[in-house]
C-alpha cells in the first residue's frame, strides 16, 4: 500500500514542483555526499532536491561531450542528464549547491557555471574534519549559504524555521535508521534494493509526506513475523556511490543467492546514523552534525581508519560474512584504499570482492560469474 502511494507521489512530484515554481517557489538542487544541510534550504522556503541519478550509461556517455573519460561515470551522468533534457528534476532546479568534495563533482558544478544558465553556490568543505579550524571554516560556509539562500529566495531563514526543519529531517533520519536496523535479524524483512529505493525516494519526495510513508513502512515491517535463520550469505556493500538507477549490482547479488544486509556508501545514500542536535547554537549543531559527528568520506584526510572501524562494527552488528567493495571507475579516492581495506579484512578472515563499474559493465556475464564464485566461497562450497 505504502509502496503504491510513494510511487504515485514520485510520479506526480515533477508536476507538483512545476506548480510550486509558478507560485514563486525556488527549487534548489544539490550534489550528494551529505555535506549540504537540507534544513537550511527547507527553512528558506525553497524545495531541496538531491541530484542522485546514476547507473544508466546513456547520460554518462552524453557527458563525454564536455568531460574527459577520466571523470567518474556518476559525475558525467550529472552533466548528461541536463544535456539530454529527459529528466525533469534536472531541468526544474533554479540553483545548485555544490559541496567541494571530490574533484569530479566540483568539475560538474564548474561546467554548469560556465553555461551561465544556472545559479551555482560552491559550498566549501574542509578536507579534514576533526579540529577547531575546520569546524570554524565550515560553520562560516554554512552561514554564507544561508545568506545566499535568503537573497535568492527573498525569504528570511529564522532560527525557529531551522529548528522545525531539523526536527523534520531528524524524524526522517530516525525512521530510516530504525528500518535499516531491522535488517540485523536472521531473515531481514526488506531487501537492500528496497531499502536503498526508500532512501533514494527521500531525496525527491516531499519531506512531510516521506516521513509519513517511512513511519507506516517501519510499523508494517516491524510487525512482520520473523522467520528462522537461513544459510544465505549476508553481505556488506562498501563504496563511494550508489545512484538512483544503479541497481544492477544489487540485483545480481540477489540472483547469486546472497543478500546485502547493510551498506556504507558516501554518495547517493542519505546518512542516517545520527540526528542533528536541535538545541544550543543552531549553526554549531549543523556544523558538527554535517562535518564532525558522522563517518567521513574518502576524500577526507585521516578518514580511512575511522571508516574501516565503522565497517568492522557493521560486520559484527549485522552478522556479515563477506564484503562487496563496489566502486566507480576513476574514483581515485576509494580506489587508493582498496588494498588497505582488503588487507585489514583478510586479517579477520572476512572475504572481500572488489567490483568496478563504468555503468556499461555492471550487468556483464563476467561480473555475474565473479559474484557467483564469491558467494560459493562464502557458502563453503569451494
Structure description:
- The chain is α/β, with parallel strands linked by helices.
- The chain has a domain at 21-161: Rossmann fold.
- It has 16 helices and 8 strands.
- It has helices spanning 2-22, 38-43, 57-62, 73-84, 88-92, 103-115, 132-153, 159-181, 192-201, 207-222, 248-255, 282-292, 304-317, 332-335, 338-346, 365-379; strands at residues 27-30, 47-50, 95-100, 119-124, 234-241, 259-267, 322-328, 352-357.
- The strands form 2 sheets. It has a 4-stranded parallel β-sheet with strand order 2-1-3-4, sandwiched between helices. It has a 4-stranded parallel β-sheet with strand order 6-5-7-8, sandwiched between helices.
- Helix 1 packs antiparallel against helix 10, helix 7 (132-153) packs across helix 12 (282-292) and helix 8 packs parallel to helix 10 (207-222).
- The longest helix has 23 residues, at 159-181.
- The chain is globular and about 60 Å long.
- The relative contact order is 0.13.
- The model has no long low-confidence stretch (mean pLDDT 94).
Amino acid at each position: 500500500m505504502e509502496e503504491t502511494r510513494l510511487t504515485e507521489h514520485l510520479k506526480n512530484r515533477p508536476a507538483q514542483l512545476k506548480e510550486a515554481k509558478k507560485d514563486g517557489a525556488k527549487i534548489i538542487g544539490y550534489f550528494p555526499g551529505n555535506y549540504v544541510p537540507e534544513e537550511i534550504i527547507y527553512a528558506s522556503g525553497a524545495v531541496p532536491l538531491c541530484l542522485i541519478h546514476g547507473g544508466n550509461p546513456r547520460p554518462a556517455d552524453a557527458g563525454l561531450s564536455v568531460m574527459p573519460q577520466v571523470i567518474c561515470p556518476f559525475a558525467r551522468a550529472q552533466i548528461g542528464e541536463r544535456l539530454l533534457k529527459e529528466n525533469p528534476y534536472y531541468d526544474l532546479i533554479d540553483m545548485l549547491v555544490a559541496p567541494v568534495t571530490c574533484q569530479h563533482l566540483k568539475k560538474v558544478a564548474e561546467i554548469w557555471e560556465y553555461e551561465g544558465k544556472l545559479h551555482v553556490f560552491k559550498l566549501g568543505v574542509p578536507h579534514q574534519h576533526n579540529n577547531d579550524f575546520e569546524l570554524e571554516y565550515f560553520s562560516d560556509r554554512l552561514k554564507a549559504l544561508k545568506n545566499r539562500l535568503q537573497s535568492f529566495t527573498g525569504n528570511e531563514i529564522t532560527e525557529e524555521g531551522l529548528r522545525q526543519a531539523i526536527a523534520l529531517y531528524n524524524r526522517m533520519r530516525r525512521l530510516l535508521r530504525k528500518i535499516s536496523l531491522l535488517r540485523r535479524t536472521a531473515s531481514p524483512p526488506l531487501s537492500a534494493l528496497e531499502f536503498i529505493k526508500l532512501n533514494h525516494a527521500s531525496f525527491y519526495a516531499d519531506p512531510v509526506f516521506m516521513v509519513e510513508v517511512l513511519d507506516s513502512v517501519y510499523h508494517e515491517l516491524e510487525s512482520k513475523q520473523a522467520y528462522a535463520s537461513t544459510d544465505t550469505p549476508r553481505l556488506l556493500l562498501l563504496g563511494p556511490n550508489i545512484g538512483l538507477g544503479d541497481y544492477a549490482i544489487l540485483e545480481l547479488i540477489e540472483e547469486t543467492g546472497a543478500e546485502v544486509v547493510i551498506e556504507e556508501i558516501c554518495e547517493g545514500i542519505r546518512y542516517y546514523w545520527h540526528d542533528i542536535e536541535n538545541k544550543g547554537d543552531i549553526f554549531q549543531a549543523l556544523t558538527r552534525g554535517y562535518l564532525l559527528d558522522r563517518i567521513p568520506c574518502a576524500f577526507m584526510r585521516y578518514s580511512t581508519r575511522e571508516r574501516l572501524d565503522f565497517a568492522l562494527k557493521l560486520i559484527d552488528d549485522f552478522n556479515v560474512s563477506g564484503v562487496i567493495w563496489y566502486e566507480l571507475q576513476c574514483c581515485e579516492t576509494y580506489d587508493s584504499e582498496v588494498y588497505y581495506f582488503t588487507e585489514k579484512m583478510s586479517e579477520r578472515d572476512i572475504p572481500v570482492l572488489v567490483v568496478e563499474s563504468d555503468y556499461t559493465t555492471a550487468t556483464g556475464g563476467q561480473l555475474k560469474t565473479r559474484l557467483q564464485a564469491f558467494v560459493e566461497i562464502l557458502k563453503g562450497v569451494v
